[in-house]
Amino acid sequence: MPTSTTKEILAVDGFLEQLRIVRQLSPHTLKAYQQDLNTLCKNIRQEQLDLHLVKAIHIRSWVARLHSGGSSPRSIARLLSAWRTFFDWLAIPRVDLGIKEIKINPVQDIKAPRKAKSLPKALSVEYAIVLMEKAQAESSIYAQDLTAWMSVRDHALVELFYSSGLRLSEILGIDSNLSYGYSVDSAGWIAWDSAEVHVLGKGGKRRIVPIGSAAMTALRNWFNVWSAMLQKREQSATPFFINPQLERLSPRTVQARMKQLAIRAQLPVHVHPHMLRHSFASHVLQSSHDLRAVQEMLGHASIGSTQIYTSLDFQHLAQAYDLAHPRAKAK
């Protein structure tokens, strides 16, 4: 039974009952609707309005108040969605509730504040080097312990991520065979002679990205281990990055292995594959300032997607200024 006799609360109770019976929403979702609509009713009572008198100007005022009070754009967007659905429901006359017909939904054209665009998280050059050196040190154990072959694979992975800026799916799509060969039918392959990687990116677009010498050394070391493991296989294209079952490595495994590698390297940040892609883009841009080249290597369809790294570059320059300029800091 309703806990209040106000028309607003009766309307909310009726609306929630329909959501529960007709749309069969979960208790958790219903609770979220209840909270958002309670906020609406509170605002209506403060303004001493009836439901049918709520206008867009009121909604904008309430949203502005919530935003200035610290509510996130995501929370406000959810709240507006609940209000909009509620007023759509009230478009049908609710004579039994004593509510007049609402002909225009006051929330219809109201949008939540824009979410601040967060910058991609990238490693510093120093942290990237520490991570690469840790992976290299662990891979060297394989010379004495053949069961440590995964450390050789992981070293090749992190070096290729940082050297090429490839996406996780692009790297895991790379195939090879036992004679340093590849098939053009594969999603990706390494051109060993030219030190390049060919991948199939978003939108089915192929691109070629150069590979640095450190990454090529790590990849050749892994190729030797990989070929020894697969020497009894046929020469057809085979996944290059594999698990103990000689199957293509899964994204989750790569994410977990990289996270643990960063922990062992004592880095104070959570490292994941896409962070190395961001690090690649940021560090190349810091050195070259060639936005178009970075766009091509990342495989971005629009340069607008690449321009966000200019903000990271500016942060780097600002930090260098603060450290170096004698008048940068207040006395």
Task: Offer a concise description of the structure.
This protein is mostly helical and 331 residues long. It folds into two domains: 7-97, DNA polymerase, domain 1 (Orthogonal Bundle), CATH 1.10.150; 126-269, Orthogonal Bundle (hpI Integrase, Chain A), CATH 1.10.443. The protein has helices spanning 7-21, 27-47, 56-68, 73-89, 125-139, 149-164, 168-172, 213-229, 251-264, 273-288, 291-298, 303-306, 308-324, and strands spanning 174-176, 188-191, 196-200, 206-210, 238-239.
Strand and helix layout:
Blueprint: H1 7-21, H2 27-47, H3 56-68, H4 73-89, H5 125-139, H6 149-164, H7 168-172, E1 174-176, E2 188-191, E3 196-200, E4 206-210, H8 213-229, E5 238-239, H9 251-264, H10 273-288, H11 291-298, H12 303-306, H13 308-324
